[in-house]
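User: Quick sanity check before I run a bigger batch. Here is a single chain. Can you write out its predicted 3D structure?
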Amino acid sequence: MLLEHIYDTDLAQGSYFIGCQENNSAIVVDPRRDVQVYLDMAEQHGMDIVAVAETHIHADYLSGTLELANATGAQVYVSDEGGPDWTYGSGFDAAIRIKHGHQIVLGNITVEAVHTPGHTPEHLSFLITDGAQSTQPGFMLTGDFVFVGDLGRPDLLDAAAGGVDTRFAGARQLFASLRDHFLPLPDYVQVLPAHGSGSACGRALGAVPSTTVGYERNFSWWAPYLESNDIDGFVDELLSSQPDAHAYFGRMKIQNRQGPKILGSLPEPVHFTAQELKPLLDQNTKIFIDTREYTARYNTAVTGALSIPDADKAGTHIAWAYNPEAEHRELVVLADNATQAREYRDHFIRVGVDTLTGYTTALEELLGDGVPTMTIEELQSADDVTLIDVRNNSEYADGHIPGAKQLAVSRLIWHTDQLPNTSTIVTYCASGRRAAVGAAALRRYGYNVVELKGNYESWAEQTAQAA
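Assistant: Done. Predicted structure follows.
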């Protein structure tokens, strides 16, 4: 058996390529939307991708299941559990809808569906048996059910998908799923989750890529509650201190349920000279993506540009800064070459931002004055400013600048009703990157936003020294 873990550090999302080396067939579970990585893997190993499966209707990224099936002709398998409110839509008409116990057989490999609700009602995990080695399963693909050191959060349907108090039932379902379908497994079964550290699908996910049933049974925070059958204590602990849910999760959930748009082969990004691009930006027919380090914008910046300061987190940042349901202008990215522009596009389409069509390598002729900034000393004497802490609620609870209001950067442009219409807004975070992403996005909505030169830690240090 061939088992490959394809991990996207941007969205902390993992998919799995599982192949039978006897008949050279493979299944991919929870693929991302830029599917070339799976096509390359199949070619490298001389395998045909004949099946694609999903653990559940995802909220944190746009699924590549239909995209990969379109590229390969593979059969799609999706959950038929959870009731009518959690049925996949018309985009999955050709899919096989599977229930608990359904088996997908590829040569020596058996993939068995296990209904493990809690994170979502329809959620499936997959037990993997390598028949060339054993008659018993040795692996469990747990999706957003069990992570390394944590569990899939049951409150996302409330926080991002319009649910009302569904988290309590979800938490109890998670308890039952652990009791009935996870803990009865042998300790040696390897647990392969769909997310790692940094994902907002759990509270405190581990950074290592896998675990075992035995390790989680002995060392997870939740194991003592299961051992003592303390469901109320489990629910209280599970639901406490969950991080902010990104606002774009609601859009992902809807699109993934219906079936994301299939992109197929994409054209090469168009290269723009500065002379070609400047009038398009001046007319606001295109949006410029400034990919420089965020502090470079303090001195000179492109008017109206979004800030995406970390290439490795480009998908995350664009999902916070740009709402494709509200804006439809094409995006032009600052990139070194066409290859880098395609890499940005791949990150963007993972979160359903499909409008990056061009790039430029030129910048100097586009630059104007720098973005507004404020030092910590200036903040201490400033009048009529609204200080916005764009970190997560848990970070804010651990300490914040007095007078600051918390509104996570991942929710800013969806909750402008919580922002002042007149006073100057000052944004800050732990490093400055999130504050830059949020400030640039808000300026496009007409807000007067100043970025704090510094961060919460530097403010705390200066305050301590002054004391």
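The first strand starts at residue 2 and ends at 8.

User: Great, the batch can go ahead then.
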